[in-house]
Records
---
Amino acid sequence: MIADSLTAVVDENQALAGENGELSNTVARGKQLVIASGKATPLKANGRPTKKGKKTNSVEVCMTIAKNRIAEVGEQILYVKLLAPNGKAVDAPEKNMAKVAGEMSGFNGKAKIKYQGEALEVCVKAKRATNTPVVLKPGIYTAAVMTDSYVVGTVAVELK
């Protein structure tokens, strides 16, 4: 009888441990920053807007980081990585390397923010390589916004 009671308590404890793990994962995802809205504007070398891929020198990504009462407050770095229509990264400046979304990677732009749990407007200028920039072909490009450990969200822009 004691062995049966002990087995039942051990089984219940294991079930609670599994449920606790699932709840911890849910809370961790809930603490992540997310983009409420965003817009990407391709820019020429002189800083003027353009729609043409072959004239695009950089992309200004402006977004609203959503309000989040359980997210960590304080200073954070957001990275922007431009992705071509085929999913491959667009040429980033040579010196821009960091741990992005959990792995060492190149990035096109970054912004240091002070997040306080309230909605926050942020703009990041995503630059391209200067030594051998590739001509951007027409299509829909994606600006992936990331921290050092996860993707915050994406913003799309169409080039002609």
---
Amino acid sequence: MNQPLAERLRPKSLEEYISQSHLIGAKGSLTQSIKQGLIPSIILWGPPGTGKTTLAHIIAETSQRPFYTLSAISSGVKDVREVINKAKQSGGLFTTKNPILFIDEIHRFSKSQQDSLLQAVEKGWITLIGATTENPSFEVIPALLSRCQVYVLNSFDKNDLETLLKRAIEKDDIISKKNIKLDETDALLRLSGGDARKLLNIFDLIISSFDSDEIVITNEVVLEKVQNNTVRYDKTGDKHYDI
């Protein structure tokens, strides 16, 4: 089974990363920190589909640190402690490169779960990267927030989204084999709402609905294909709400 288009196009380096130039552009506030490997514990705050998870992976890869990940939806205090113990062992005592612990949807962690991170962050056993769609000032406990830098990620703008579509057409192993012409993009961009993952999900759905490899994308085609294809998905599924 093929990976989703968004996963196939996930950037592997800072150079491939689209958008958030205020953070990782030439003069971005995170650029030099990442390149020098001097990463503080950080909270990445932004809407869905803005590259929070991708950025965490790139930071770990660029700084060559062990990378551990937890989801706040499915992890308890016990899981946090187990990962911290593993991270302490993998980091060693004589290295400045602390392992990175990435926690997705950290705003869903209870106070006791967040408390369990404090000592590890304070002692430098781990470098915490938390991702949240909610304002961390209200959802992250003050003691943990004071130990982290908060960086805001913005929704993708029109240029970012169009760059992403062109990358899909030119670089993706499956889509690049088709002859795709982007005549109009307004409907695609409007449906995405600035969410890169949603844009690629919709684009993938539309491309796969064509029998021919000769494809012309117009606003009318997008709206027609999206309307016809939504019935394929369960009404409680993500795709339904994405559309």
